[in-house]
Design brief:
By secondary structure, the chain is an alpha+beta fold. It has 2 domains: 72 residues, Complement Module, domain 1 (Ribbon); 99 residues, no CATH class. Helix content is 32%, strand content 20%. It is built from 5 helices and 7 strands, in the order H-E-E-E-E-E-E-E-H-H-H-H. The chain is globular. The termini are far apart. This is Sushi domain-containing protein. Keywords: Disulfide bond, Signal, Sushi.
Length: 171
């Protein structure tokens, strides 16, 4: 009985809607009503949720909002007494593709512009203070190509940029 409750909390299968799993570094709690399924998401304390904290399965078989992603706070993780900052794995990138698929064309263009700007600054060996643009806060670090993602993490870890929870396009 306990095992089935645990499994129900980790994976939600809803008729008509895609199967959901808890985000990495987060958890999910789904409830099914007579004609609605709603899933609530939370992230570890040292991470920031990007996307929606509640998803509802609509009658058309679609989830009503952006599936969440738990972005590590690179200014917190890795510090003494805090969890180690996780590496970005291939699995993370595959999972994040699902998140990126939900972006509007405008958001995709913004992501591309930030990537090009930071790439050009890195290529001319600009100082970290120039490379660490506030615009890097607009997306989770994993959204960027690997070289930019590493720079994004470094900028946040060294607090060269301070990203407020509201700075993200999704927060």
């Amino acid at each position: 009985m306990m095992l089935s409750i645990i499994l129900a909390c980790m994976v939600a299968v809803v008729s008509g809607c895609d199967r959901l799993v808890a985000p990495k570094l987060g958890s999910m709690d789904c409830t099914e009503g007579v004609d609605v399924t709603r899933c609530n998401f939370t992230c570890e304390l040292w991470t920031e949720m990007i996307g929606a904290d509640v998803l509802t399965c609509l009658p058309n078989g679609e989830w009503d909002n952006i599936y969440p992603y738990c972005e590590p706070d690179y200014s917190v993780c890795g510090k003494k007494g805090a969890p180690k900052c996780p590496r970005i794995t291939r699995e993370d990138l595959r999972d994040f593709e699902r998140f990126l698929d939900q972006l509007s064309e405008e958001d995709r263009a913004e992501l591309e512009n930030i990537t090009l700007e930071v790439t050009s600054l890195i290529s001319v060996r600009a100082p970290a203070s120039s490379v660490c643009k506030k615009s890097l806060c607009s997306f989770p670090c994993v959204a960027y190509p690997p070289k930019i993602a590493r720079q994004c993490k470094k900028c946040r870890r060294k607090k060269l940029i301070k990203c407020s929870k509201r700075a993200s396009l999704f927060g």
